Every structure is written in structure tokens, then in C-alpha cells.
Amino acid sequence: SAPGRFADYFVICGLDTETGLEPDELSGENFEQTPLRRTFKSKVLARYPENVEWNPFDQDAVGMLCMPKGLAFKTQADFREPQFHSFIITREDGSRTFGFSLTFFEEVTSKQICSAMQTLYHMHNAEYDILHTPPTNDKDSCSSTGDCNGTSVSKLQRFNSYDISRDTLYVSKCICLITPMSFMKACKKVLEQLHQAVTSPQPPPLPLESYIYNILYEVPLPPAGRSLKFSGVYGPIICQRPSTSELPLFDFPVKEVFELLGVENVIQLFTCALLEFQILLYSQ
After folding, report:
1. Contact (Cβ atoms closer than 8 angstroms) between residue 80 and residue 74
2. Domain span at residue 48?
3. CA atoms of 160 and 77, how far apart (whole Å)
4. Is the pLDDT of residue 203 over 90?
5. CATH number at residue 176
6. Strand, coil or helix: what is 258?
């Protein structure tokens, strides 16, 4: 039986430099996109512990749900703020496990990956020239559009471009907690503080491994109806578990639902739920 720990796994997903850049077919690969706008396969790079008896690790599910759009590449000119999201894995017996992921961007230090991205751009630009250069005997179309060796083509080629000699390449990476209960706010703070420790010029008071060990082995689930306060890397973290006589745990901000769907749609969804209609939410 589960020993009642706050978290079962700490997971890292990202770029496997040994396998290199693999197109991610599941996310709808579009080779007409510039290479920086394509998606590539991400992999589970590390997890700790290796496995727990009461919650077997599903590598495929965790890898896909941690980075559902695969790897993303950016340069120094792009927006690179960390993004947080959560997910649920429901097993055949109806039991659930919860995942909380923080995705951020780090500089690519592998020369092979940078060279591969540069090669993809050379191929993309060559294909673009072939597809968009008018026939040589069509002089009128050249002069009218201005695309024959003109500025329009070169501007499109430079859009979202990557030049290994002048640009810094960044790739997405994800750190994740797999937990038995959905303490979203606490997990978000844990991951944000770990990320802050990695990116801060000043190292944290203790090695990062000690904080990860603490969250996995020394922080228990709070008893029903009680609160729990434990230490993060840079400050205390608090979570609260409702008692058996209260509504079930729901640690997500309701405000975001109204911001995303609007008041009318939320009322319509609530009405459908009360009338036991089937509800399908479709999104990118």
C-alpha cells in the first residue's frame, strides 16, 4: 500500500542529445514550417526514484503529458518565460495519479544539435527557393511581384531563422512532480523554486538533490482536515487537505475557467453537467 508520501516521482524531460532531432509525428509535423517552428520528440531523461511499488512509472504517458507539443526551439529573440501545466493519468481500475510540470528553456550546448538545426535551415531555404521562384521566362511576374532574388523572399527566409554564427539556440526542458493528490499550488511553488535555484547565479544553501530527496521521502501527505507546512528551496510551502465532511480537494483557480471560457459558456457547461449531458472539450 502507498505510504502516504507527498510526491512519488521527480521527472526531467527534454532533448536527448544522443538521438538528436527527431520529428514529432504525433504533434502534427508540418515540414512547410521553418525548423524553429517545428516540433521534435522529447524524452524522459531522468526520474527518481526508478520505480515505486504502489505507482508504477508509465514512461510513455508521462513523457507525452509533460511535453504534449514535443520539444520547442527558440533563439535569443523569442519569448522564453517558464510555463506551468498539470495533467492526470487515469488507470484501468479508475485510480488516478497527478502530474505537475514546469517547462522552461535552456541554452543548447551541443555543437551537433546546433549544426543539425543550421542544416535544417539550409534545406528549408533551398526548398523555399525552388517552390517560390517563378519560371525564368516569366519576366513579368518577376518584375510585378518583386520576388525574383528580391527582398520578399529574403525577408521570409530570415523570419524565425537561425544562424549558428550569430544566434544562441535554446530548447525546452521540463521538470515534473508525480503525486497521489492534486496539490497544484504547492507543487507549482516547489518546481518554481527548483528552477530558480538552477538559474540563480548564487547556489542554494543545500545541494539540489537534498531538496528533491526531501520532497520525495520526508514530506508526508497531510492528514484529512489538516494543513502541512514544509521547507522549499527559498521559502515555506503550505498545502491543505479537506476533511471527509468537506468538499473534495480542488486546488485550481476557478478564475482561470471564467477567463478562458467566459461566463455564458461556464453557465452552459454547469447546466449540461446538472442535466447529465455528455460534454466534450476540444482544444489545441
Report:
1. yes
2. 9-111+164-221
3. 9
4. no
5. 3.30.450
6. helix
Query: What are the grid coordinates assigned to 134, written together?
Result: 517563378
- 213, part of any domain: yes
Condensed to tens digits (0 to 9), the pLDDT of residues 72-122 reads 898 888 888 999 999 999 988 888 899 999 999 999 998 988 888 888 888
**CA angle (247, 91, 89) in 5-degree steps:** 70
The three-state secondary structure class of 118 is helix
All three cell numbers of 276, joined, read 447529465
What share of residues in the chain are helix, strand, coil (percent, to 5)? 35, 20, 45
Cβ atoms 101, 184 nearer than 8 A: no
- Please answer whether residues 237 and 230 qualify as being in contact, where contact means their C-beta atoms are separated by less than 8 angstroms: yes
In a domain, 172, yes or no: yes
d(CA 158, CA 167): 12
Q: What is the mean pLDDT of residues 210-234?
A: 91
Number of folded domains that form the chain: 1
Question: Is residue 120, in this structure, part of any structural domain at all?
Answer: no
Q: Are 227 and 239 in contact (CB under 8 A)?
A: yes
pTM value?
A: 0.81
Write out pLDDT tens, residues 37-66: 888 889 999 999 998 888 889 898 999 999
What per-residue confidence (pLDDT) applies to 37?
81
Structural domain includes residue 123: no
C-alpha distances in angstroms, 278 versus 57, 96, 270, 281? 31, 21, 12, 10
